[in-house]
Each structure stands twice: as structure tokens, then as C-alpha cells.
Fold this sequence. Notes:
Elements: H1 2-12, E1 18-20, E2 36-37, H2 45-52, H3 54-77, E3 85-86, E4 88-92, H4 96-112, E5 118-120, H5 122-125, E6 137-140, E7 144-145, H6 148-161, E8 165-167, E9 172-176, E10 179-182, E11 185-188, E12 192-194, E13 211-220, H7 225-231, E14 237-241, E15 248-251, E16 257-261, H8 264-267, H9 277-290, E17 298-308, E18 315-319, E19 322-329, H10 334-350, H11 369-375, H12 377-390
Parallel strand pairs: 1-8, 4-14, 12-19
Antiparallel strand pairs: 2-7, 3-7, 4-6, 5-6, 9-10, 10-11, 13-16, 13-17, 14-15, 15-16, 18-19
Amino acid sequence: MAGLTCAHRLAERGVEVALVEQAWCGAGASGKTSGFITPDSELALVDLVTRHGEARGLQLWEFARSGLERIRRTIRELAIDCDYQVQDSLFVARSARAFRRAIEPEHRSHSAHGYRSTLYGRQELEPILGSRAYHGGVRYDGTFGIDSYAYCRALREALEKMGVRVYEGTSVTRVHDRGVETADGALSARTVAVFTDRCLADLGLASAAVYHVQTFLAVSQPLRDDEIRIVFPADRLMVWDTDLVYQYFRVTGEGRLLVGAADLRHTYARREARSSPGVVRKMYRYLAEQFPPLRIDLEYFWPGSLGVSKDFLPVLGRQEQQSDVHFAGAGAGLPWAAALGEYIADKIRAGRDELDELLSAARGFTIGSRLQRVLGKPVSFALSHAAVKYLRR
């Protein structure tokens, strides 16, 4: 998403662009996501404002919103067929404590800063979400769902028509300020932008600042309208909950229920698991607990790993001593990734820099590099995420 968006932005401005991809566009995290296009991918508005102050927090929220709107605008302008589903976002509480400490503050933050949102208590939520298990929720509009793989493939085709040279199945072995080297040859370029997300370290970039988290997704067989109404009695929504390793779900255009979940054993594991019977069981158990009348079969199941920093904000920068090599990653969520791609394109063309310091890969984290070397990456990132996001809940 970040690389395609950057290439698109530059090509729109008449820049000659070559895109080099190890596998194929959409093969990684961007093509395997849930397709939730919401600025609230990992950090809620209240998280951003509380941690970074009102001005910076709002700037970051608007940055994520700009990525959301970039994706929407690209879909419309290029007539991309990617199962575009306008769906409000709904953040729900799994406990009374989570409602008080996460849901109510998020609603207050939206309201205080001029964003529309609706707060539901437990009784008010039931006609919106057909479950008695949640303790309330906060809802806001302007969001949508997509088939992110279809989006990536369509944008790749559009870029080729715009004159962008696309080299898929081409592994970059080295980047420098004169271009890139691959196993099959070299490409010369005045400027290089690297968007390899969790794999930035493979090219010697941001190695201490970026790790990965793993989730799993599944889709059900197509549901009848009456089955969908068990989950969504009124509008179809994009839903996620307040659990530490949270669950999320929405309905696709085909009427399939898409579900995401993980567990602590897999979330911070060093190696990606291709499957997990335990997580599949967790998905079935979760749906049965939340929506007892619903009986579904999950037809397809797949893993996905995405890059993260220790504070969930993206990282960006330039390769040391090579100012013409830019990089960005750890954009946890497609809107953040799209915003990053646009930001780096604008930096290349016009020197954009308002977020350089805040998103620097060299910024300070709760657990610094020295302690991380002792604890190891999995523990360091897990503890950092708990400190940033969950301890206040």
C-alpha cells in the first residue's frame, strides 16, 4: 500500500518511476488484511491526544484520515473494483471497566475535537449489534471496507498504464543513493524510497525500531440476509473490541462474515505460523459466545504479519549518510500506510518534513535499544505495546 501509493503520487506529477517488488504487489501484509479502512487501526484518537498532546495528536489523526481519503479517492478516480463497502466503525467494550476507560474517553475525545460519534450503553447497543455480551460501544462514520488484495492488484495495473515500470518477482539485495541492486541486475535512480514494512531490517534500515505482529483472518460461507441480521440488525458495521489481543469482524459484499483474531503465543512470535487450529477454535468460540443463534462455517483461513513500532506509530527516515534513500514502514493499518506513501512522495518532490521528528526511527521509546538487547524483540515490543495502549484500560 505504501509503495504503490508513493509511486502513484509521483507518477501523477510526471516523475519517472520504477517499482521493484520481491514477490508481487499485494503478496504481503497489504493484500492480506481485513480491509478495515479506518484511522483507528491500532491507536484511537484518545490514545494519540493523551500521549502526544492535543495539537500533535490531532495532527496524527488527520494524517491517518488523509490516508483513508487517499484510498477512497483512488478507488473512485481509477474505478477500482475492490468490494468497496461503506461501513461505520464500531469500537465495543468487553467489560464494564473497558467501557469506562476506553469507550467513553474515545467518545469524549471525538466530541471535544469536532468529530461526530455516537456512544452506546449496553442496552442501546443491542439493536445495533445483535449481542448482549458487549458493555457498550462508540461509533463513527466516514469509514469503509475493501478487498485490499484486489485494490493492490488494480492499482498496480493502473500504474503500468501511467508509464510506471513494475518489476515483480525481483528481490532487492542492496540500496544506495544511485539506485538499487537485484539478483538480476541493477536499476539506476536519482532517489530511492524503501517500503518493506516489517522487513526494513533486511536492508539494514530501522532494525531496532521495527518488529512484526501476527494475526489471522477467516471468512465464512456466504450468509443469508436473516443470518447477517443476527449480527447486524440494522446497518452493517466494522467492529473491533477492547481485548488485549482483540477480535474484529465485518461483512463483505458477498455477504461473508470476515473475522480476525490471534493469541499471545502467535502475536509476537519470531516466525510466522501458516495456520493455527487454536486460533480457529478461538474464532468459533468467540462468535458462539457473542451471537449464540448464528451457526456458520469458516471456509477460508489465512495468516498475516504486519510491521509495528514500539509505540504503534509508523517510522520513517533516510539511510545514514545517503540522503537520497528514504524509507518508511510499520504503518499498522492501510490508511497509515497510504499516508506514509504520499508523505514520502511529497518529501521527494517538495521536501515535506512536518512529521520527520515525531516519526523518526531514532525517536525514544518506552523500552530503549539497550534494554531491548537484553529482553529480546518479542518481549520488548509486547511490553511497550501494553504500556502505550492497554495499561490505562
